[in-house]
Specification:
Blueprint (H helix, E strand, L loop, with lengths): L9 H43 L2
């Protein structure tokens, strides 16, 4: 039976997973912020289109 040997220790992997989790939280917050900005822009565009057709 053969065993896989990793150059990374369990602690290294835990550290990497923590970094990934932190990045995920950061990206999720940025996504919410961008989604809100897109919604604001869509609302503004609709208002401007309404003014243009009057």
């Amino acid at each position: 039976m053969s065993y896989y040997t990793s150059k990374y220790s369990g602690e290294d992997i835990d550290t990497l997973l923590d970094k990934i989790a932190a990045s995920n939280v950061s990206l999720a917050a940025a996504n919410v912020s961008l989604s809100e900005k897109v919604q604001q822009l869509e609302t503004r565009i609709a208002a401007l289109e309404g003014e243009a057709t009057v």
